[in-house]
Amino acid sequence: MNSHDPFTLALSLILSGDPGLFGIIGLSLQVSLSAVLVASLIGLPLGAAIALFRFPGRGVAITLLNALMGLPPVVAGLLVYLSLSRAGPLGQFGLLFTPTAMVIAQTLLVLPIIAALTRQAIEDLWEEYREQLQSMGSGRARAIPTLLWDARITLTTAVLAGFGRASAEVGAVLIVGGNIEGVTRVMTTAIALETSKGDLPLALALGLVLLALVAAVNATAYLLGQASRRHMQ
Amino acid sequence: MSGLPPMAGQHPLLELRDVSFVRSGRVLLDRSNLALAPQGRTVVIGPNGAGKSLLMRLAHGLLEPSTGAIVCRCNGSAAPRQAMVFQRPVLLRRSTIANVTHALALSGVPRRLRRGQAERALARFGLADLAQRPARILSGGEQQRLALARAWALEPEILFLDEPSSALDPAATKAVEDAVNVFHDKGTRIVMTTHDLGQARRLADEVVFMCGGRILEHSPASSFFDAPATGAAATFLRGELVLDPHEPATLPATRR
Known about the structure:
The structure holds two protein chains of two kinds.
Chain A: H1 6-15, H2 19-52, H3 58-68, H4 73-84, H5 99-135, H6 140-150, H7 152-168, H8 171-177, H9 187-197, H10 200-232
Helix pairs in contact in A: 1-10, 2-5, 2-6, 2-7, 3-5, 4-5, 4-8, 5-6, 5-7, 5-8, 7-10, 9-10
Chain B: E1 14-23, E2 26-36, E3 41-45, H1 52-60, E4 67-72, E5 82-85, H2 96-106, H3 111-124, H4 140-153, E6 158-162, H5 170-185, E7 189-193, H6 197-203, E8 206-211, E9 214-220, H7 221-226, H8 231-237
Parallel strand pairs in B: 3-7, 3-8, 5-6, 6-7
Antiparallel strand pairs in B: 1-2, 1-4, 8-9
């Protein structure tokens, strides 16, 4: 293997702690984790509320939520771009091509996943717990924190699924972030750019890190599933 | 006489007045009256589909009656504290003790008192050593004891038990029956259903006999078991199949 082999160069970039590489990785994690955090804070209670309460249009809301799980990232990016651009309703804040815009776009992608999976998990658990909780004097609103905690393993898997989607998508962050070096360049957009420029070592290094990240997320989800089967049926 | 309290004169703790329950056009409970005195152990028996579980759920407030009213009178306070133990205990996916502290939290016990009360309830039912175990991996008998300990911690004035030991082995059944008597000794009103006539004889102070969505008898245990007033109850006590005396179309009891 000669030292100009892209794979070797990629490994040496990772092992030498290349600041450019790790800056990109850091921003990726920051953006995707922020999006998952915001989406969880909204999506977990929202999904639980849709599971527990009956209201007009509930069926439509559930269908819409499920459909939005497959929202194409470029469409999410386009919607956020239109909202944040100079002429858009939120144009005055000047958020376009900032990490904040990327967080907003990824939140839009992750929120339906977390809310829809939460809705399903909480509805199943409520079916099982309803009589017992009502017997102990718990109304539906009071049951939300109880159910969210008792579904914690399933919900963690849902949040991890959301993180997987956020960290792997390229369309939304490219449109609203603009792939500006040192400002809005994240792993996926960098891979797309460096590959087209022919800088394969950097693209490959980022690809390896991204792959490891996705593998770690899935391994965590798998281990949590195992733990839940052992301890909680 | 059916539906009348055997201990007339005392203020009833809980009263069902002309309570009916209709689902999908079928009358599952038909204009039933029942008055429960403040003390004692009432055992509700009858064939499958008689409406025993339904009666318990209506009395406990888990279901709203279609017609009629459920009236509670308890030491002047509006509603007596109640608890219910189900056939299959529903335990939270938490530790044994957290199941009890959560119930205490729901009933408004201040946080600083919950742990101590929960520990005492667990100890009372021999579960102190299992306090930190995940509740869902306990054995069936331990789970039902935990459900009883959880009810105990709530200090109910009425305890409903719906077939509490039908899924348990004899030793665990004995533990449940002992627990029922622990509640009884403390003055808790017991209302339970069972399939087990032996258990009914062991525990009952009074018997409510149901058939086809109606309360046919409500009488002291001794007189019920020695001389049931209705033919249906006599048939049931002999261990024969009770065919429904009323129109079968509206009555789920005839399905089995």
